[in-house]
Amino acid sequence: MKSARRLLIRYALLSVALALSLVAFGSAGSAQPPFSNARLNGGYAGGYQGFLLVGGTIFDHNGVEQITFDGNGGFSGSETFNVLSPLGQLTCQGSLSGTYQVNPDGTGTLSLSFAPSANQDPNCVGASSTATLVLHNQGHALDLVSTGNLAPQTAIHIHVQLNKQ
Fold it and tell me: What are the extents of the domains in the chain?
């Protein structure tokens, strides 16, 4: 009688543990659908840091961005960034625009153009770049890494972290 009672208690405890784990982690049938351009939709904001390499000299480069993704592969936004050099700090503001492609696994690519706002330092110039992206946290967070050449003898490396607003 005691062994049947123990077995019943163990069975009840295992059933409760299984039910709690299904609630906490979801069942196999409720997996997240694949990512797509439509999943990257709405406003995201955050900051970045990295460096620029210009003619053999490395400059610290950091900034903040606000980007609105349209869910169809296009985006627009704004950016303010600083470049630190031996000559001092250069701060630029401007607009961003471009396109993106999200793969079913949440990775993808982004091509962007920066256009400086009017009446800024003449060293604030427009530029275009590409980045690798990773959409995560069920589409609520986005990491971008841009590593590439902007012009002859010029390179950039930045890591951008954006969160859904």
Answer: 1-31, 37-164
**Tokens for 42?**
């709405």
Can you say how many angstroms the Cα of residue 102 is from the centroid of all Cα atoms in its chain? 12
Contact 38, 72 (CB under 8 A): yes
Exposure class string for 104-135: b at 16+ Cβ within 10 A, else e:
eebebebebebebeeeeeeebeebebebebbb
The number of beta carbons lying within 10 Å of the beta carbon of residue 65 is 21
Q: Which residues face 88 on adjacent strands?
A: 85
Q: Which CATH architecture has domain 37-164?
A: Beta Barrel (2.40)
Per-residue pLDDT of the chain (165 residues; tens, 9 = 90+): 443 333 223 333 233 332 222 222 333 334 456 899 999 999 999 999 988 888 888 889 899 999 999 999 999 999 999 998 777 899 999 999 999 999 999 999 999 999 999 999 998 988 888 889 998 888 889 888 887 766 666 777 788 888 998
Smallest Cα–Cα separation from 77: which of 120, 33, 110, 105? 110
Place of tokens 């993808």: 108
d(CA 33, CA 115): 36
